[in-house]
Amino acid sequence: MTFRNQFSRFHDSTLGVEEGTQPSPVNQLAPAKRHTIFNSMPESIPIGKPERGLVRRNTPVSQTDIAKVYADGNPDDLINATTAVTQAIGPDNKYLADTFGVKPNGLPYNVHVGFSNGEGASHLRCDSTTFQVAVTKSDAQLAAAFTTAEIVEVYEAVIKNGWDCGRSNGEGISRMLALQLHSDLKPLLTKPVTHWLQHGACDCISTNDANDRNADSNGCSVVFLDYLNQGLGYSWKDIVRTGGNTLAETYSKLTGDDSSTAYRNFMEALPSFTNGNFTDALSPFVNGSQLVLQW
């Protein structure tokens, strides 16, 4: 997953590691298809130059039964980022285990944290517990939030009830659950919401977009999940364990309404939906009781 410039995911970076092992030396790294979140990281991260990719020094900085955290660069420079991950990963994993009601295989997590000219996180497969996390020096604390979003995707793969980390429903739930634990993600999550509204508010819940870096479907997904939680009052535990191959199917399972009504009911509710996380993003598009879109 990747954040920052367009709040899509960090897809198609390089890692070149096997589960439970440290990455290979820099000159042995090979490009690999990756699942990413909050992506502003480059499609292929240029390895080896400070501020233009992760410097693969892989210095261990902490180890527990839950996670091994590595500094991919100077450990002193990365102390704020690696400390944030170390402190948050245990409690966050506990919350997610309770929310999903399942336990992932392949622990401990292996979290490689470094600086890059983009921000986000990625892993090779949805069930992969080895993560590459990239932050800028000014936003080092976001490393913990990005890591948590990746952990959500591991749980999606374990529960196997329709959430797909490579599609918009899985991207949306990973972002929203990370937001519950890390409120500093809100500005990054808000950007695609505005993008979705500015581009006509497409129905991105009746289908499950296979491009998890699409700002429109990502914006739609997070607002719709916010609506299920804050608007209709369903707990995150209920939403997650209900699942579905589309968000409209999740809605139908929760409410008993036909899935074909999900988008219409959602859009009708948005003008008065004032208690959610994205009210500030929605309000410029509301005139009276109507949602006014300019596309």
Q: What order do the SSEs take from the amino end to the carboxyl end, as H and E?
A: EEEHEEEHHHHHHHHEE
How does the major sheet shape up? 6 strands, mixed
Query: Which spans of ≥5 residues are poorly predicted at pLDDT below 50?
Result: 2-33, 40-55
Radius of gyration: 19 Å
Shape field = globular
Q: Please give the order of strands in the largest beta sheet.
A: 1-5-6-4-3-2
Number of strands: 8
The total of helices stands at 9
CATH architecture of the largest domain: 2-Layer Sandwich
Mean pLDDT: 84
Q: What name is given to the CATH topology of the largest domain?
A: Zincin-like
Report the structural category: alpha/beta
Task: Estimate what percentage of residues fall within beta strands.
Answer: 5-15%
Percent helix among the residues? 25-40%
What is the number of domains? 2
Distance between the termini: 28 Å
Give the CATH class of the largest domain. Answer: Alpha Beta
Tell me what you see in this structure.
- The protein is of the alpha/beta class and 295 residues long.
- The protein has two domains: 26-159, Zincin-like, CATH 3.30.2010; 184-286, no CATH class.
- Helix content is 38%, strand content 12%.
- The strands form two sheets. A six-stranded mixed sheet has the order 1-5-6-4-3-2, covered by helices on one side. It has a two-stranded antiparallel sheet with strand order 7-8.
- A hairpin with a 6-residue loop joins β5 (120-123) and β6 (130-135).
- The longest helix has 22 residues, at 79-100.
- The two termini are 28 Å apart.
- The model is unreliable at 2-33 and 40-55 (pLDDT under 50).
